Amino acid sequence: MLPTYKTPDGSSQSDRSRGPYQNTFAPAPAPAPPPTPSYPQSTHRPLIDSITNEWRKDPHAYDSSSLDAEEKQWIWEKSAWSERTRVLRKLSPKRVPRRIQRYMCIYCILVLVAWASWETTFRASWHEWKELRWGFDPNNADVVGSNKAVDFDGLIKVKKLDSHLVPGEHEGTGARKRLVVVGDVHGCKEELVKLLAKVSFDRTTDHLIFTGDLISKGPDSVGVVQLARDLGASSVRGNHEDKVLLALKAHEDSITSSTSSHPNYDIPEDPDDPSHNSKALALAKTFSKSEIAWLQECPVILNIGPIPGMGDVSVVHAGLAVSTHLEHISLESQDPYLCMNMRTVNLKTRLPTPAHDGVCWAKIWNYAQKQRKLEERQTVIYGHDSQRGLGLKKYTKGLDTDCVKGGKLTALVITAGKKGGYVRQDTYSVHCGTYWGKAE
């Protein structure tokens, strides 16, 4: 059966009746019109425009008579939260100028930094400064340092270092000289040799100074003294040299005054009297007469003299005292026992003491120097206080770093500056073996 087509007038016609060319040039049938939708056409109006608040006008909208207690509480909390949100929105940073925001942030940061600095650093320093001012107020205690110093037989209190050994003291050769100051050696000869090699010690240009306590506790006290003598070194008298020399003198006095033809050379140990300490006497007997003589020549205080950048410099074993009024006490008026044993100062009595509890004498010394004129300030190089260890301050240089107990042996090298300028101060140290287990 042949397909039929509708003619323009609405009648149907088969392919055969149209002829061979009628199908080719016949117009295409018109597309069917789209179906008409049953819902309203969109007018492109935003949905938000259809939302109104007409419900607020309804008197029954706020009727809470039908609500239970929980729902009423929820509505109240939501209303309160909305009010708080409105207030916070008014205080929003968006309403605060950016410049004010930056200033507030900077202010908060500065407050935090100031508070942290006060708690970590300045608070302790302020309390310490307050204590020092109170402790050295002339109205709080009697005057200290005005009494006459006691003289001891066979004790050299002060000795002056030859000026040609001071760095930069003379033009030419003085400009290349160095002072090598070594802390408490305590018989550790091997470590001393290593330290001198580390600082490249040259006897032709350098001078070696010890802060006392060359001997005792360590394995080779005699070797340390021999090495110090061979190098032409200087030393001050420490508390251990003092014990040994006093024990030897007491022993010799007992022999002289004894009527027995066979005196007892063993002196019983008395911890309250170092001059009758059997260990000190046993150590004294290991030295030759020339070595004992060299130890006896060691002064309590060795005054180096003025050094550019350091003021007037002195070497002492333990420390130096200041007067009640923070005035200068002459080196000759210093108490020899305190110079060899002091560690702290009792601020209530202003008296130095060998005890560890108290204010370190070095703090008081530095505080006192700042109250003086620049040309009157003095620097002290010392040892003795191994518990505090290395203490390098402006006017005090503590060099006892606990060598004999497994710590370090430390040296302060003072090198002349160029053209008479300020000297350079460098520290060197070497590790030590443990030769002494218990504390002093």
Automatic annotation (TrEMBL):
BP GO terms, sorted: polyphosphate catabolic process
CDD domains xref list: MPP_PPP_family
Signal sequence, start to end: none
Domain of life: Eukaryota
Annotated Pro residues bias: 28-38
Sequence ranges of Polar residues compositional bias: 9-25
Residue intervals of the Calcineurin-like phosphoesterase domain: 178-321
InterPro entries xref list: Ap4A_hydrolase (IPR050126), Calcineurin-like_PHP (IPR004843), Metallo-depent_PP-like (IPR029052)
Matching Pfam families: Metallophos (PF00149)
Span list, region Disordered: 1-44, 255-276
GO cellular component terms, semicolon-separated: cytoplasm
GO molecular function: endopolyphosphatase activity; phosphatase activity
Protein name: Metallo-dependent phosphatase
Species of origin: Pseudovirgaria hyperparasitica
